[in-house]
Structure formats: C-alpha cells, structure tokens
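To assess whether the prediction recovers the assembly geometry, we first specified each molecular entity separately, as shown.
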Amino acid sequence: MLAEIITIGDEILIGQIVDTNSAWMAKQLNLIGVSVKQITSVSDDEQHILEALAQAEKRADIILITGGLGPTKDDITKKTLAKYFNMGFRNDAGALEMVRQIFEKYKRPLLDVNIQQADVPDGCEVIVNRNGTAPCMWFEQNDRIFVSMPGVPYEMMYLMDDEILPRITSRFKLPSIVHKTILTANIGESFLAKEIEEIEDSLPPHIKLAYLPKLGQVRLRLSAKGNDEAKLKAEVEVYAKQIIAKVNQFVVIDEDIALEKAILNIMKEKGLTLSTAESCTGGYIAHLITQHPGCSSVYWGGAVAYAYELKESILGVKESTLSTFGAVSEQTVTEMAEGAIKHFKTDYAIAVSGIAGPDGGTEDKPVGTVWIAISSKHKTVAKVFNFSNKRIQNIERSAASALTMLLNLLKEAV
Amino acid sequence: MLAEIITIGDEILIGQIVDTNSAWMAKQLNLIGVSVKQITSVSDDEQHILEALAQAEKRADIILITGGLGPTKDDITKKTLAKYFNMGFRNDAGALEMVRQIFEKYKRPLLDVNIQQADVPDGCEVIVNRNGTAPCMWFEQNDRIFVSMPGVPYEMMYLMDDEILPRITSRFKLPSIVHKTILTANIGESFLAKEIEEIEDSLPPHIKLAYLPKLGQVRLRLSAKGNDEAKLKAEVEVYAKQIIAKVNQFVVIDEDIALEKAILNIMKEKGLTLSTAESCTGGYIAHLITQHPGCSSVYWGGAVAYAYELKESILGVKESTLSTFGAVSEQTVTEMAEGAIKHFKTDYAIAVSGIAGPDGGTEDKPVGTVWIAISSKHKTVAKVFNFSNKRIQNIERSAASALTMLLNLLKEAV
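The predicted structure of the complete assembly is given in tokenized form:
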C-alpha cells in the first residue's frame, strides 16, 4: 500500500514556512504499514496541481493533500479538485453546521466567505473538521483514495488521528513495516559503518539499514517489511542485538527517541534530578527537555542567564570572575554549573556560555566559541568548542554537545 | 528562471526528519529571483530518483538535489546521477584533498570508504565542500543545471551561500521578485480578507496577495514579479500602504519577521528590557527570543521554573499561593511575572504556567489550561487560555499568545 503526500501553497515554495505536516503524516502512515512513495510541494497553480494529482494517481493508492483550503482568493484547491474529478459543487449541511458552531463559540458574525467554506465538490464525502472552518474531503476514483485536508497543522493532525488513519486501517489489509532504531553518540558515520560492515552485509533483502547522522549523533535504523509482524520484529531484534554488541560503547539507547529523552529515561530510572544554566543557548536546552511528557520528574528547571546581572543574581557567578575571565570562559561556565547545583538543588546541572553570533566575537574568542560545563554534586567537567559563524547552528550544536557531555558523565558515574 | 528541489532519502518519507533544507533553499532562490516550481522528496530508490530527475528536467531550468551522499551503502545518489547522465566515475583530486584535511583536523585515520567519497561521475564539475566529506557536484545537460549537495543542513547552506547562488546570479539575467509582508495579530484570516477585499480586487495581475495564518497571527504577503525591481518595489509599497491604512489597528509590523523579533525591535527602540518566567513553555519563549541576533540589548534572561521549588526560590512565588491556588492559577502566574520584574529588574516580564499535557489535567483544569501574565512596572495583565490536549501545540500556542499579550500591553503604553 503506497501513499503520496501533496502540499499545496506558495508559502512552502517561497520558503516562508517549513513543511512539518508531511513528516508528521509520513510517520503516522508508516506506523500503520503504509509506505510513503513521494512528498510533493506545488504552488497554488491549477495546471500544476492537476499534473501533480495525475502523477501521484499513477504511483500511489492513497493521495493525501494538504493546504489551499482557506477562505481567501489565493486558495484554489477545492476548485481544482472539482475540475480533476469533473464534479460540480454543493453546500454541505454538516460542514456548514460546524462552521456555524465555530463562529458561535468565538462570538463572531458569520460572513459570506465563511458560508462558502462549506461548498464542496459534489461527489466527495465530507469529513467534519472539528477544529477549523475548512472541511476535509474524501474522494475515490479508479481504486485510488484522495483526501484533501487543511494545512493548519493541528486541524490536519486531529483529522488524521480521528478519521483518516482509522478509515485506512479498517479498509485495507496492510503489510507490516517494522523499524528499530539504535541511537549512537561519540562516533562518526563512516567509523560506525566500518565497525558493523559484516553485520550489514549479512542482512536479508527485506531488511534495510540506514544511517541517520545529526549533530554528533548517528541513528542506525533497521527497517523490515513483510506480512508477519511478529516474525519481522524477532528478525530485526536479532540484527539489532548484533549491532549493539559490536558498538556497545557508543550506544545511547535502542529506541527511536531524542538524545535528551534518552537522558531523561536514564536519570528517571536512577532517581536523579537535573537543572540548566543557559547563556548562549538561551533556553533551547530547557525547551528540548520540556518537550517530553513526564520530564518534570527529572528536570526541575533553570536559568536563562543572558545578562551578566542574571548570571550573578540567579546563579551566584562572582562579578570578579566575569570581569577577569569574561562570560565565555571556563571559570564562568564552571561557576554557572556549580551555581545551578547549589541554588536549584539538583543532582546534575548543564551550563553553557558562548558567542552564538553573528556579532560579538573577538580575536581570542571568535563567534562560535562555546564553553560547556556539566556538574554533578561531586565533579564538574568543562570543555570548549569552536563551532561555526551561524547563530542557530551554534545554538543547536551547543545543545547537542552539552547533552552528549551529560550522557558521558552519567555513564562514568555508573 | 525556474528551479526544483529534490531531496533524496528514506528518512524524510518515513517521517524521521523534517525537511528544513528545502524551505531554506527556496527562500534563498526567491531572493535572487529564481522561482521554485516544485519540491519533491523521493526515497533512496534508483528508479524513483531517475523518474524525479527526468520530470524536474522537463519543468525547471535548475534542479537542486540534496541528500544520499553519505559514505554508507544506503546512499545511492552518486551512482544514480552517473546513470542518469550516462557517465563513468573518477576519483577527484580536489575532493580527496578536502576529505584528507577534514580527517587530519579531527585526527582520525582515513578509511577506504572516505577515499571513495571523492569518487564522482566523470562529467561533473566538483565544487569543494569545506565542511564535510561529501563533494558537491555540478552537472549540465540540455541547457539545464543539476547540482547535487549533501543533505547535512550546514554543509548545504555554506555551499549554497558561497558557491551555488553566486554562480546562478552571475550566469543568468534573472527577473526580479519583490515580496512585502505585513504581520497582523488579533484578527482572523476571513475578517482580514473582508476588510481589504477592495484593495485585493484592485491588484494588477503581476502582483499577488497571500494570507499566511499561524497561531493567532496572519501574515499578508504581496508578491510582484517583473523586470524593473525599483518599479516593483514602489508598486508593492503603494498597495502595502493601502492595506496598512485599512487595518492599522491589527498591524504589528510591515516586515517579514517573527512576532518576537517585531517585539524586540519595538522594545529596543524604546529602550525597554524584558525577562521571562516560564513553567509549561519550559524555555520555549526564551528560545524564540534568543534565536534573534542582537536580542541581548532587550532580553536579560529569565527562569524556567518547572518545579515548585524553583518558582519559589528564583521568582519568589509564595508557598501559600502555590498550595492554595495551585501552580496553574491567576495568582501564581501573577506572582511569577511580578517576581520576574522584581528579581530580574526588567521593565516587562512574561510569565506562563499551564498544563501542557498529555497528563496532569484535572476536571477543573484540563490539559491545555494555561495562565499567562504580562507585567510592566505599573501593571499586570493575566488571562487564561484553553488550548488542546497536544503538548507541543500547547507550548507553541502559549508562546504565541504570551507574545501577542506583550505586544498589546506595549501598544497600550504608547
């Protein structure tokens, strides 16, 4: 069973927004055994949308379309779908009722353009969107399913979770796809590949191995496809065990989770607590951690100490340290980490201070210079990094390095 | 001049990573006057890649390809390109030298697979990648340009900035594309459309208006295409002024920048400072702010007060307030905001406390209940929101609402 995802809208093609919808949809589809063959972004242009639909229809069984359903004139998806399927329009009573309810809830008058949002191609089935005014439309043609959804992420997510995925699952006998991911750190992709070369060469054709490198981590993903899910799982597990045995010292966890989530799991199991003291990462590490449900049993919080004043008042960094060595120094970052342990009363603390850029660099400390310290109650480890001259990248790489350093200190303490 | 972007790799199609590269590339291309016709993600499958290349070649002048250039066996882009262009392979001396230098810098032995990274289809021009071991390859065929780049974001970004974009600009006489964006808040998309309907109807065919809604904000984007950039700018400016005059009370700023950046600009101009006191948003607001270069002149930092203990110790929230009203309450969030003003000594402070979920809700305070307070030295405004049961979404919507509340308080103080 193959799916394709088509996103409609100039905003992706001019780079104004990142297409996060497609990745989310692809993940959900894979989980129910539907492979995604292609993801395509096209503009709000009738001819181009028609071509994309025709090509997707040739390749895939299910075509999921997002975007271009707003009430305004630049949104042409509905008209184009009607043309593609050679349909007229009807005003759908169920869709109109939902629009009415939403406007009533927000106590806003119903405009003509909003009533028109309930106009749909007359041969489609309307699936009610409980979170917005654009209806979801289900079409069938030549044994293919086409679903058009709004591009607003949470409207699309609810529709997928509550309606589309359950319908696909109950309608088709889907093959099983089993993924197993091993997260590694402290080793490069090519070294890893050399270490596990023999295991990779021994994989049967229905099991594939992929290397997914990102910021000092490499994810190894085994993917197996077949009909017997239990058998696939068992097979994949055998190869995963072989890989883990071979590169054990670099393995963080054998789950497809983020590094910070793996750390949270390890710390939770040991009953350890964590705080953060961030300067140049500006809350990004805290954000990475607090994305994860249940983090509060480990993570207590911390400081975003951007100004000197806050480094002193919240973390107790000495004014003399800042004036003698500067904010980006081993001494300051050490006092930040140890200050976090002392003031926030956690078992471990992460501290980061650096020059994220693009300005603020000096000859001694160019943009990209970042000091990171990790403290436990017994020990502080500090290290300097020299990243790039790109701000966002410096923030992300600092966070990844800090998390890896914390992981290593946790492993040492075993 | 039309471009297409093709990303190669299963990781996007199984939803393991979000394709941020394409949005970035599209933005840069648009800035130099190249329109992106389509963005396509295909799997590491030879036949599928060949088809995508052939289709892109029909539609576009420049085809930019990322991904699938790693040293490992799942990466087949180079082999497939050689097949597409009917070329053999050569080991490129310049590319090999760069690989050598990178391994020397990190003091790692050079493996056979790394030497093979310098193997390239023999008819391509190699563009040296200074930030990684995969070479960038430039092909020309039938008046079309194909460029293959690594998928690692910062390697691709350097190559685009330093090599690819300058080559495209110097080679072609490109049309001008002028965009002008107006950021609005506190008004829905359809109301905005109704307000400016007459202006929209009066636009000439070469100027388009798009509505880009996101988390309580709507961006209005005017796009004009033609040959005379100065004339286009002047034209767009006329329509932008008309729109701004019509919906002035909802206009945040007439630039394509994020809401938090607009706020930073407003506060910087007035010499105002800001701090944050975050519970359920867990550093996300701080992160949004500190993404922006130069934020330190306004933003001093703040607390991520996840645990009760840190709400008390850093922000001075009273224990009795927490025990009487709970952490998610008007009283607590008010004390958090006022505590931030007092302890961090800033002019304004944002405080957020809520139940992000998926657990932790009660009958009175279900998941998605979020209290937000904004304090100045003279005033505190607090408001409760009821968002969804999705954690990430609650974090993002809380941040957007908090920023809008801050904006409104700043406007009030004018």
